[in-house]
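Contributing new records

If you add data, match the layout below exactly. Sequence lines come first and carry their own label; structure lines follow with theirs. Keep one chain per record. Anything else will be rejected by the validation script.
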Amino acid sequence: MKLNILVSGCLAGLLCLSACSPQTTELKEYTGYVNPFIGTGGHGHTHPGAMLPHGMIQPGPDTRIDGWDSCSGYYYEDSTINGFAHTRLSGTGCADFGDFLLMPTVGEQKVEYLGKESQKRPFASAFSHRNEYAEPGYYSVFLDTYGVKAELTATGRAAMHRYTFPESNESGFILDMDYNIQQQINQAMAVEAVNDTVLRGYKRSAYWAWQQDLYFYAVFSKPFTHTLYTDTVIEGGKQIPVCKMLLHFDTAKDEQVMVRFSISSVDSEGARQNLLAELPDWNFDKVRADARSIWNDCLSKIDVKTEDPDQRAIFYTSMYHAFLSPNLFTDVDGRYLGMDLKVHTTDKEDPVYTTFSIWDTFRALHPLLTIIDPQTNESYIRSLLKKQREGGVFPKWDCAANYTGTMIGYHAASIITDAYVKGYRDFDVQEAYKACLRVAEYDTTGIVGPKWLVPFVMPRARYYKDAMGYIPCDFENESVAKALEYAYDDWCISVLADSLGDMETKDKYARFAGAYKSYFDSETRFMRGLDSKGKWRTPFNPRSSTHRNDDYCEGTAWQWTWFVPHDVPGLVGLMGGEDAFVGKLDSLFAVSSELEGETASADISGLIGQYAHGNEPSHHIIHLYNYVNRPWRTQELVDSVLHSQYRNAPDGLSGNEDCGQMSAWYILNAMGFYQVCPGKPVYSIGRPLFEEVTIHLPGQKEFVIRTKNNSKENKYVQSIVLNGKPLEQPFFTHSDLTAGGVMEISMGAEPLKP
């Protein structure tokens, strides 16, 4: 895909905070390296719309309504566009949003209901990828049905649309209020014309976010007449409300009509103030240039030197994806909707965020941020602290100030501990520590949400693991996966307790951290479900998967057996020593990739043997070879994954992007290292992809990784020298990195074995 290289402007804005502070680097146009269409096909579930780093608003094209591959609202294989919604999730495995769909029209405006089975609205337009273009902060497409060119750009809280119309006395817009992704329940909708150029409205919906309130304020550059269309249709015995605002005006040939559109979770006045603050005029090209500048600053945090344009595109697109979420959730006046669904006010310089996919992102995204943007990572922690204060407990996955109860573990403890041990402590450490203890122990009191949701937010598994010492598989679903992740999180808490001098709690949680041993079956050498009578669940098949309804979570015994990042030596011992461990680990990559079960999890993807790179439980496994003196295996497998699981194409991701985790794995490993255990500030060296990488660190320092004799064939490390001193082991520390300096890695075609 051809991407233009454009000249950047500059903007100093609140949105990016430290995340996008300018770097004193050579002026480059990093945005020209990004291909926003990577991951929009296959099952990547990304979106090419005009989004800013951590932006509250995500304007862009919507091509399908339902199905797993509609999660972002856009799928590359589609050939029609329903319109341009203003909210979405990019790269997730679950869907929500798709609010306030705006579609330009020419001719008769069709609004008839096509049924829940239809992926199209009656006013949808055909389009071609030949006439579609995207860059960070900008999107355009030609709508064939109407002969209209659509362009979108954005600030943090507002979108600007520009439409070039043909000559017509039947031009207009349809604002589809009832549109959403994956057939959400619209509980309330209201829209009104303030005057002949301004609309405002409100919507409450229920889906993944069980109560999402959203307001908008929209200003049009051309006066309109309007018709409010409302109806109720019956399908499947359910009443489906319909609400659309139809706008009408005349246009001359190539006349441009623009729209300024802002949102707020607080109220319509908040949306209006967001618009006035961030889009005070109609200078579309300036907003686009400012967006490009903001993105350029973010992407410039890492420089890579390579002659391979595809690898450069994958790397900087990964950087782009890594900065899309979590999302800003605070209005310009500092107001935001808290987890208690009440309006709160925070320091405008320290905004609150939402869209924390913590089960995914604790593994690589947050560790990456501790390197290139620790201040923003601290801001995320402060947001999480507010959420537990307002909602009663840390979220696992929050969406629009709602607990979703999705996924397992309590990995806020990991994010906090990893930041703390690396010296980033610009948050209330004591509050964070107490909140970690609160979420680790079974307590359903004070959790804000409907009663049906509470067992998902606070599963009874946390009672069993403390009271019984293990989680019986006949009492609790996903028992093995929960237990292994709890053991890791409890280890994180023990580290915090130790640092804070709470030895009694440290010892208690260190014991909990060893609970993973209870699930290891020495006969099969797999982690297995153990029932309430202390018996292994039978029958047992390590390739079996029943999505979210077995002893594992989005995985099999093959993938989950290795999740003991905090105690690799302990796992090696359970396996029978290094040789036995290596034999088992080799088998993971060599056995059949076949999955068994009628409802095998679709998330188990990107398979190499039973290693599943398309889903997060596998992401640390390749680096385990470094812990048992087989670094060449880590090197060759990292090389394999970098080249086979990531491509510069719409289907270039082997699984859901998952709010930056898939991309963060690539960024770290392409630079040449990975953190196996967040909370231990140690990096495992793999196979560097580029001949030179420069990480621009806070405080004007740099860490440079130079790779000699690097080629596709030379994928094995021969020597490592850090600041002039040879490294005898394939590990270095976070303090080594943040001190700045040079790491030199020499490569060769043959593995270096003892």
